[in-house]
Amino acid sequence: MFQIFSRYGKVLKIVTFTRNNSFQVLIQYPDVVTAQSAKLSLDGQNVYNSCCTLRIEYSKLTNLNVKYNNDKSRDYTNPSLPNGESGLDGVIPDQLLPQLLLTGTNSPVALQAARRSLSQSDHTRISAPGMLASPFTPLALNSPLAASYAGSPVSGLPIGGFTLPGTGANSALGAGPLRLASQVPGTCVLLISNLNEEMVTPDALFTLFGVYGDVLRVKILYNKKDSALIQMAEPAQAHLAMTHMDKLRLFGKQMRVMPSKHQIVQMPKEGQPDAGLTKDYTNSPLHRFKKPGSKNYQNIYPPSATLHLSNIPASVSEEEMKQAFEETGFTVKGFKFFPKDRRMALIQLGSVDEAVSALVKMHNFQLSEQSHLRVSFSKSNIQPDGSPFNNIN
After folding, report:
1. Which of 50, 110, 119, 229 has its CA 20 to 30 A from that of 376?
2. Do you know which Gene3D superfamilies this protein is assigned to (predicted)?
3. How far apart (Å, rounded) are the C-alpha atoms in residues 222 and 38?
4. pLDDT tens track of the chain, all 393 residues?
5. Which of 31, 151, 19 is nearest to 88 (CA)?
């Protein structure tokens, strides 16, 4: 588990346990964005061929309080813990935090059969779709993945008889012929191409990519205005944005999003032609994630035709909200205030493409003298008959 999940960020703690005849694992990352990146990349993947499918959910624990470093639990930030029985305490429920809960239903018999199958297989074969790259060769956890924990007990931790390809003693991290299909890029900068150069602006890209992380700088290329560079605050945020935005249609064109070779977006030098195509948003008041523990971390969802609206003044009616969207050129298919909080609502548009454009144009829309609309993608839909929401918390 450490080797697999370290590909997506620094793993702080791991606790394993069995509940309802199911082997489960809790993994703690430093922050929610890294945890979500790992979840998006690994949920549904198989550790072995047709066996040990990772089912990943967010844990409600605020922190893993690990008492012992052994084969059941480990705190990689505290190598001096004794070797005893693992345990959890000091937990606070009902919060979305940087822990992931892994569950599965595979039996020990199936696991043993999978290992036998792997040991008899051709070690040059590429793994099937939906399966983590194989083969898994026996190795204690002393690969470069553990380099940041030098001197801790992790270097001698047996990890169930397998390691990821390309992570052995003679390999650079991720350098093997087989590697996970999706990895956190080492840069905060994304390269966006195939943009609608007649309509796209730095502010539009700041607003859209800001749904998945804090955008620091945007640069539309002066000599290639259908391409842009976007600098996010953290590599995990860049990966999250790339996961959701690649091949998404913006203003009628399908964007391509990939990691850039650049580490930062340079501002234009004095006298250099730019035409306002490069903007620095470092001090923007519109960042969604600068506040530690922000509830915005709990509301990151893939693009959808339904938008979540918040910061609605009590004086604004449903008709006024719908009219604001329709006057901007959008088709409103449904609208519903939250039953317990009229400051929030869902609005359903004609398509995902239309919702993407609406988010760009309506986020920060001024509703009153002191209120600006906040817009994000929703996980819920409005029932066709206008009845209460699906899956609303």
Report:
1. 229
2. 3.30.70.330
3. 35
4. 888 898 888 899 999 988 877 888 999 998 888 888 888 888 888 877 767 888 888 888 878 989 889 888 999 988 888 887 544 443 333 344 566 667 654 545 555 555 554 444 433 333 334 444 433 333 333 333 333 333 333 333 333 333 333 333 333 333 333 333 334 447 899 999 999 999 999 999 999 999 999 999 999 998 899 999 999 998 888 988 998 999 999 999 999 999 999 999 999 887 777 788 999 999 999 999 887 666 777 778 899 999 999 999 989 999 999 999 999 999 999 999 998 888 999 999 999 999 999 999 999 999 888 889 999 999 888 866 555 455 443
5. 19
Place of tokens 């693992």: 86
